[in-house]
Amino acid sequence: MAVDQSGVWRFRDLLPIVDNPDNVVTLREGNTPLYDLPRCAKLAGIDWLLAKHQGMNPTGSFKDTGMTAALSVAAERGFEWVACASTGNTSAAMAAYAARAGLRSIVFIPEGKIAWGKLSQSMDYGALTIQLKTDFDGCVRILTDLVTRFPIYLLNSVNPYRLEGQKTPAIELLEQLEWQVPEHVIVPGGNLANGSALAKGFTEMHHLGLIPRIPKVSIIQAEGANPLYRSLQENGGKELIPVKANTRATAIRIGNPASWRKALRALRTTGGWCEQASEQEIALAKAQIGAEGVGCEPASAVTLAGLKKLVAQGKITREERVVLVLTGHTLKDSDYTINYHRNELFTEAENAGISADDQPLHAALRKPPIVLEPESDAVLRALESHMKLTHLTQPA
């Protein structure tokens, strides 16, 4: 059965959300790999680092695990239309699962700063795309009003069934580790549902007696889209301080996250932290993950950038075991990667702000194409020069 091949629905005894398994809409999501990152561990100053790569889901992001759950509920309840506001990943997942179920889907996107590679997926899966002259949070407001007027099923992260699906990577991670619990799990923070969903999964496993303790779940935000981090710093999390989001990590460019209270509860119940990462720190971390042959979208790389800070602050010690949750595939935002390696990602002023310690790290990681005349000797000279340069820049 297809449900048995799904990394979400094989845990269906823990997902009492559909009455009939025949109504499940699945693309065989989940069952994503767990990668060892020894070089990134060394860079961060710890001995043990793994990455749970949710970008290896069918549409290339962690959203699939939640969307299979919520879309299955929509199908079982007889909805014909589903909708979401999205900066990319949610729309791709929703449109794919809606197409699989034979439902119609609507995507609301904000004006400007869209990762069109992601949006191309929802177009390919047949979604109706509406671009509003506002930001992501404005799209959410319009959509929230529309679903009260028309029989449209809302599939943004406020949908509780999405969190049920998104908790399953926590179970899967523990299974892959043979139920040995890591000390820390670090996730990117955008609309902030993912951290709370994973914490829910870990908590349920603890309540069932399958694990002796719950790992600390920490959330990392981009410096330009940091409402949770800012709120914790300024008022201890008593109320959210929305921001006008501005980051190249499009998947987490959200200034007024709907699930901030759930995320705050996850931090407090697990003992985790919230940190932020600058644009330059995100780019460096993304390139360092890519240099291990893994790769991820920019938003995922905030996890490694945040890990470095938590280690430097003494909140994570060298011997503790850490798992980064990489939420999106490296091809989700290919323009970002191309611009980074061609040294065109940042403005001159931004490049000037890169620390003296990090400048050689960026330079060593950038791999732009080399343009040569079609002559063997020219290629050989370039190879000899490259090999010599690589030898001189490799760490001892």
Keywords:
alpha/beta, Rossmann fold, 2 domains, 43% helix, globular
Brief overview:
This protein is of the alpha/beta class and 396 residues long. It folds into 2 domains: 2-14 and 26-59 and 162-337, Rossmann fold (3-Layer(aba) Sandwich); 63-159, Rossmann fold, CATH 3.40.50. The chain is 43% helix and 13% strand.
Plain-language structure description:
- The chain has 17 helices and 10 strands.
- It starts with a helix and ends with a helix.
- It has helices at 2-5, 38-44, 63-76, 89-101, 116-124, 136-146, 160-166, 168-176, 193-207, 227-235, 260-270, 279-290, 302-312, 334-341, 348-352, 359-365, 376-393, and strands spanning 34-36, 48-53, 81-85, 104-110, 128-132, 152-154, 184-188, 216-222, 274-277, 321-326.
- Helix 3 packs parallel to helix 4 (89-101), helix 7 crosses helix 9 and helix 12 crosses helix 13 (302-312).
- The strands form 2 sheets. Strands 1-2-10-7-8-9 form a 6-stranded mixed sheet, sandwiched between helices.
- With 396 residues, it is an alpha/beta fold.
- It is globular, with a radius of gyration of 21 Å.
- The protein has 2 domains: 2-14 and 26-59 and 162-337, Rossmann fold, CATH 3.40.50.1100; 63-159, Rossmann fold, CATH 3.40.50.1100.
